[in-house]
Amino acid sequence: MGFELPSILIADGGGLMNLKACLIVAVIIFSIGAWGVVARRNVLTVLISLELMLNAVNLVFASFARMHANMPHEAGNATAGENGQIFALFIIAVAAAEAAVGLAILITYFRNNETVDTRDMTELKQ
Amino acid sequence: MMEWIAHYLPARDVLESRMYLIPLFPLIGFLLNGLFGRKFDKKFSGFIGTLAALCAFIMAFMCVASLHEAENGRTAFHSSYGTWILTSELNCSFGLYIDKLSSVMILVVTGIGTLIHLYSMGYMAHDKSVWRFFAYLNLFLFAMILLVLGDNLLMTFVGWEGVGLCSYLLIGFWYEESKNAAAGMKAFVVNRIGDLGFLMGIFTLIAVFGTVNYVTAPVNGEKGNVTPQTTFDTVTKQVKMPENPGLLDYTEALRLKYGKGEKVELPEKAELPKYSAANVADPKDTVSIPLTMPKDLGKNLAALITLACICLFIGATGKSAQIPLFVWLPDAMAGPTPVSALIHAATMVTAGIYMVCRLHSLFAFSETALLLIAGVGAATALFSALIGLTQLDIKKVLAYSTVSQLGYMFVGLGAGVFSLGIFHVLTHAFFKALLFLGAGSVIHAMSNEQDMRKMGGLWKKLPWTFGTMLIGALALSGVPGTSGWFSKDNILANVLARYHDTHNVLYLVYYVMGITAALCTAFYTFRLIFLTFFGQNRSSEDVKSHIHESPWTMVLPLVVLAFFSLAGGFLYGGSFIEEKDALEHLGIRNVPYLEEHSLHGAHTLNLILTGLVAALGIGLAYFRYGKGNNVPDPEKSTNIAYKASLNKFYVDEIYDALIVFPFCVLAELLHWGMDMIAIDGIVCGTAEIVRNLSSVLKRIQTGLMNAYAFAILSGTVAFLIYLYMNSVAK
């Protein structure tokens, strides 16, 4: 990479942990979620993958918040890195609401069309 | 007598400011008959039409009589009614101008017009759309008055086109028969071809002189010269021109500047006279301003003037039925006889001659143009006289006679005697209108029979018609004493004199052609008289019982015209014939002779020859047709010359093959090639392309949700990569 990521120390005995590692995990989870959205046949599975993507993003936000809290110049500031954590809470709430709506749509669609296979949803075809 | 009349006239200023009434009366007549004529009684429409023409004639007569007694140099009435075109290149306004030349023409037009309106009341009394006829006749009078009284070339052109339109409307008056409609179209199209030449001439004159006015614009509110003259100041040796000079002022200035004795020689690069105001001796009545050529043309002024004259003459060949554009006139006989009399004998066809005479000094500069005019005139005179020898329809004989006599007028113009050309217009108007109206009377009596083979022996039952037509025929043949003799044979004398003067053998050729045509004219005219009025009547019993003399509305114009055919020469000849008189009385300067005595010698020889020719023609006609019933029978003849003459030398067929057929082929080609293939191809082709493109592009919309999700994802990823690349590049 062209820039150096600072190291973060977690003071609960887990040992040294890089920001890099957290981000790589998040990217992997996001990719799996993205693949799931695009390439799965069952709409429920698509919704689950969507949740995966949201969780991966949450992980990114939390990692960066922790990084900010562990910065040397923030020693003594109990609310350092609060932005990231607050935003992560927001995402959780929004994800829940969106999941509810998505499931409602799915159930209604199933009631009308008897199928949740994406290959059968071609009403927009020209 | 003129002084007595002058006492009762309104003042000159009043007349001048009311000049617009002359064209206005026929216009009102046209509107009344055209808009409300359907509801009018037949007699009432005729009455309105004739009244309008009569009012125009009275007004014109008053203006002319007032001018006749002019003092202190007031030679013309000139009024302007608003600007028409105002650009940096050209300034043209609506104006009316009565000078001596247009006074002759306006009296002919309105006078004979009124007589023919009166005649039509009797002739067209049984037609079902009389109102339309009188509306068109009045419109024609309006346009003809504009043509004659217009004070610039564009006003004349408006009238020119207007009379062409009315000619079309009137020839095709009985349009239910397609033959008449076709004849009307032929007249209009052929006329239009000539108009192209006319326009080119006008454009050339605008390019050279920068103006289309004949004379300078009217001097308002000033007594004295209404038309300021161009003069030569012998003290300062400079030419004084009025402000805003017209074409005639320019030509007069050129003549004064470059004239050597009687000849005018325009040098290689002639310039319009330049002079400064400081040198002018007496600036009170003329305004002298420095003038230069409107544009630097750098070319020979003489050549440009010749070009303009030739182009204008082409316009005249179209309107006045000369070779090659005369073919419409015989076909125009499909119209009612009063139309033939008014338009195709007396007034419309003389528009070309009037135009040439109006620009007489311009034409006088160009010998080439004059020779061309005389040549075309002489050829036409001879050609149509030969055709007229064998025609069987009474109106066709008169039509070809008209073409022939118009040729004579152009010969006169080409020989340089413009005043005699106008004089022949005047006398020809009298006797040709008389002959046509008489023919109409005969046709009316014979229940619309026009073939001379079926006529005969009519002199007893139609005495007035016979008497007047005989007078007309004598005038047409140029029998000494009649007005026709005064004009036509005088023209021939001047052609011979011009030959003596310039020793140009072409003039001798034209003279011989003219004499031959005169022989033919006398022959076919009296052939017409003998076949129609003498011998035994050859029509059916039914027609014979209906033969009757025409009502007074038809006979009165005949008598009036016959009087003028006989007396016209004595009454008016003087003002037209002598060169000096022509300048004083008409304001036209004939091309002068280099040697004074050429004219005298020519007169004697010509007198003998023309007298001989007239007698010979009448004698031959008498021997062949006068006694007994020698009726022409085309089927029995094997003479090639006879057949060629009868079929008008196949001009129509030749034109069809050479001009009309290729044109139709071209039109068909363009229809298929351009219209159907190219244009429809482009328009429909564009639609095809769009359709094909869309059928390819619509395959993106599969309707598969996964595909759409993938598209969203890949688009976002691509965008992020792009942003990353940008930020890294910095």
- Number of helical stretches of at least 4 residues of chain B: 27
**Quick one: overall form of chain A?**
elongated
As an assembly, this protein is heterodimer
Poorly predicted runs of 5 or more residues of chain B: 221-225, 274-294
Give the DSSP E fraction of chain B (strand runs of 2 or more residues): under 5%
Largest sheet of chain A: 2 strands, antiparallel
Which structural class do you get from the secondary structure elements of chain A?
mainly alpha
Distance between the termini of chain A: 45 Å
State the end-to-end CA separation of chain B. 111 Å
Number of helices of chain A: 3
- The helix content of chain B is 55-70%
- Tell me the number of structural domains of chain B: 4
Q: Structural class, from secondary structure content of chain B?
A: mainly alpha
Strand count, sense and barrel status of the largest sheet of chain B are:
2 strands, antiparallel
Q: What does the average pLDDT of chain A come to?
A: 84
| Largest interchain contact | A-B, 14 and 13 residues
H and E order of chain A: EEHHH
